[in-house]
Structures are given as C-alpha cells and as structure tokens.
Amino acid sequence: EEANGTDSARAPKVTCEERNVSGIQRFTPQILNVSEDLMELLNPNSSDCTLVLFYTPWCRFSANLAPHFNSLPRAFPTLRFLALDASQHSSLSTRFGTVAVPNILLFQGAKPMARFNHTDRTLETLKDFIFNQTGIEAKSDVVVTEEDWEGPLPSVLTKGIDWLLLFSLLFLASFVMYATIRTESIRWLIPGQEHEHQE
Questions:
Q1: Distances (CA, A) of 89 to 16, 144, 150, 168
Q2: Residue 51, burial from CB neighbour count under 10 angstroms (0-12, 13-18, 19+)
Q3: Quick one: CA torsion of 91, 92, 94, 96, rounded to 10 degrees?
Q4: What stretches pass through the bilayer (predicted)?
Q5: With helix as H, strand as E and coil as C, how does the chain read?
Q6: Which long-range contacts (CB under 8 A, 24 or more apart) does 160-164 make?
Q7: Based on CB atoms within 10 Å of each CB, which residue in 55, 58, 100, 124 is the most buried?
Q8: How far apart are CA 80 and CA 144, in angstroms?
Q9: CA-CA distances (angstroms) from residue 18 to 5, 123, 129, 162?
Q10: Nearest CA to 50 among 73, 25, 71?
Q11: Which residue has better confidence, 131 or 17?
C-alpha cells in the first residue's frame, strides 16, 4: 500500500551524524564549567548534533527541567547533550539570543539550527522536539528516574547572591541620589541650601 501525504513522515529539518557510542558507560549531559568554551566543544566541520541547555542554578524553571534533561542522553545516546550556566557564560547567552532561562538550542556542528519553544518542558515534549527536528527516534523505555533528580544538572535551587544584580542596583540607587541632590528644584529640601543663590 502506498501511504498518502498526510500519513507519510516529514523529512527531518536537521540531518545529524550519529556519534559512535561504543565504550561509553554512562549517558549524562556534560556541564560546562566557567573556563570551558562551548564553541571549542562544538565541531564546526562536522554534522553531529548537540542539544545545549542554557540554565541558571537559582531559576526554578531550570530546576524543574533538570531531571528531564538529565534523562535525555539515555533516550538519544547518539546525540551530545551540554548544559551551561547562562550567568557564567553571558557572552554566549548574548551571542545566541538567550534572554530567558531555561533555553534549549539544537546545534549541528557549531551552528544553531532550532530552539525549543514549548512551555511544557517534559521528557516527552523534549523527545518530540528532537524527533521533529532530526528524525531520530528516542528509546521508548527511558523515563525520568530518581537518579535524574539528583544530577548532574541540579534540580534543587541554589541560593546565592547575584553580585551583578546587586552592583547594578547599588549603582542605580547612587545615581538617583546624585541626580536628586544636583537638581535645582529640590535644593530647598536640603538644610543650608535654601539661600545659596540669593545675593
């Protein structure tokens, strides 16, 4: 029987070269540290595909996504999965238009090909996204396990001080105070300034 146009599968948008998985014991995402550069890990001369997650450890949406992303390498062992803290790699976030986290990009070689844009971030929606983009089918027996909740991506929020935000707020507050003091219209509020310009 010949399949009609509605039943036939669409051609994948990205043709991925599947990596050799012999010798790999554990399939987990690789988390980039501050000194690692994403562009050095992506091979611009190949057609292998890598799913890259931009996250922050203090974002609850990133924490909710973490166990699902942790399980993806088992579902797609022939693809690579990387994650990077967007607050530590701000130049990359800017370069690839990552204005909010979590943000997932599919790269072919070193070129971004597709962005995951679903609000429902589960293992199933991630599997569907990868299949729709690459045509690679996920292993059907992979589910999110207790081990996926533990790592390597953190599913528990990290409490800490965002020094850049704190510095920005202090700078803004000091600028507003300076501008307020320098404004002629409110000099009369400051004691000793009311007769300064009178002769």
A1: 26, 28, 23, 18
A2: buried
A3: 160
A4: 163-181
A5: CCCCCCCCCCCCCCCCECCCCCCCCCCCCEECCCCCCHHHHCCCCCCEEEEEEEECCCCHHHHHHHHHHHHHHHHCCCCEEEEEECCCCHHHHHHCCCCCCCEEEEEECCEEEEEECCCCCCHHHHHHHHHHHHCCCCCCCCCCCHHHHHCCCCCCCCCCCCHHHHHHHHHHHHHHHHHHHHCHHHHHHCCCCCCCCCC
A6: 160/57, 160/58, 162/58, 162/87, 164/87
A7: 55
A8: 18
A9: 28, 20, 17, 39
A10: 73
A11: 131
57-71 core/surface letters (b: 16 or more CB in 10 A; e: else): bbbeebbebbbbbbb
b/e for 122-139, b at 16 or more Cβ within 10 A? Answer: ebeebbebbeebbebebe
Query: In one letter, which amino acid is 73?
Result: P
CA angle at 151 for the pair 149 and 157, rounded to the nearest 5°:
75
Tell me the one-letter amino acid at 107. F
What integer pLDDT is reported at residue 2 of this predicted model?
40
- Per-residue pLDDT reduced to its tens digit, 130-177: 998 988 888 888 888 888 888 888 888 777 666 777 888 899 999 888
